[in-house]
Amino acid sequence: MKVFTLIVIYLIMMVSCHKTDNEAQNQDAAGGHDHGELAILSFQDGMELFAETDQLYAGHGVSIRAHLTFLDSYRPAEQGILYSRIVQGNNVPDWLPLELAQAGIFTGDIIAGDPGVCYFEFLYQEDSVEVMFTSQSLSVYTHDDIAPEGEHHDGATFTKEQAWKTEFGLLQLSPRDYKRAIHCSGEISISPGNLVDLIAPASGKISFNGSNLVEGSYVRKGSVLFTLMGTGLGQDNIALELTTARAEYEKSQANMVRKVELLKIGAISNKQYEEAKAIFDTDKTRYEILQSQVKASGIVITSPVTGYITDVFTASNAYAATGSILLKIIKEGGSLIKALVPVTEADRINSISSANFKLPYGSKIHSINDWGGKLTSVSRSVDSETGMIPVYFSISSPELIAGTFVELWLLSDVMTDQIVVPQSSLLEEYGLYYVYVQETGETYEKRLVTLSDNDGMNYLISGGLKAGEHIVSKGAMAIKIANAMGAAPVHSH
Fold first, then answer.
1. What is the pLDDT of residues 203-214, one digit of tens each?
2. Contacts of 458 (CB under 8 A, 6+ apart)
3. Predicted local confidence at residue 307, as pLDDT
4. Residue 381 pLDDT > 70, yes or no?
5. Of 61, 77, 127, 208, whose CB count within 10 A is highest?
6. Cβ(359)–Cβ(346) under 8 Å?
7. How many domains are there within the chain?
């Protein structure tokens, strides 16, 4: 019987130990970590402070762990000093410096005062920068009191340490203006008047002179593109070209003088005079261009406009004949986007001010304004082929390929005081959309939202969110994945 009893005790101890080990393993697998019972979250001057500590008891110390983050980049504060103190009524103690334990994390111990209501203050200093943070009201208990349990949150967990290592961002919601969008398709084209041919003014050999002339290159008006050299080319010598141009100019000039006298006495018609004048103008222009451009080394060819090179028809050391096309350049602002608006949106068409668009060879949504584009015209008639109303935007970029179709969101009438979130904040499941709303510094509520409109970049929210809340604007998918795997990250204690 004694032996049996010892065996039973041994088995109970083994089961108990196995259970304890499993619980520890399960906690590790779930990424669990001991949070303080009290959580402090404060935003100030582009920074976020999240601090954890235990319930406060009069005259007793607690450990505090404060996380400090720059909101613009969502990266931890890696230098500077963070002070803390507990304020009660008129009792304002001296600042207690916290230790920078690791990037973004400051730790230290602090003693609570008398029972009652208090709040934490934090002061961050770096060079000449000072930022003050204040907590919510907190209670200091006696040891005879039964302090309430810390607030529990069922939301997804994502620690600061993990957020700092990924692309992450928070956005505080505030009412703003929103321009309703007309979703439609369109086509990229080039305005004929904005496509410029650069023609060789004389015959000669092309020298690029180190210039990088390739399709898509941006050139400014007057910038040197290459040199046209005629030396050693016999009858195509540039000096000869200049001499010939001058002779033709002087000949047509003399002819023009004669035509003027004949016109005065009615010996020729206005048409004959205009024909002579056209020849004279052409010869004069060619001679003046050659005269201004010809150097000892040849003719310096410059860009006639500011824009983008679309085609190159020559190469360094290649021969170019007079009148041959060397380059094609699209003037800056020389492309057009033709949007086709459904007739059902005709009542909103006059309020269109700008547009966002998506190219077929990329996933990014672009703004017309960011590309220096603008609305140029709104048609007053329906396109005979499509039955749509054309709306035109001018725009210029080497990324635009004429003839391709684009997806557009035309920005029209303004709605004031709206809740708007970026596309990057939204996640979708089974046709339902949700965002992560920050509960504490490291917990986030999965909140269903109602969408009523979008401009390609931003979504208009008609339900589920309210002003003042902080949502995850970047990194929502990282939170979803981390919690779906049951591996919320552990603090690096």
1. 888 887 666 788
2. 178, 420, 421, 422, 423
3. 83
4. yes
5. 77
6. no
7. 4
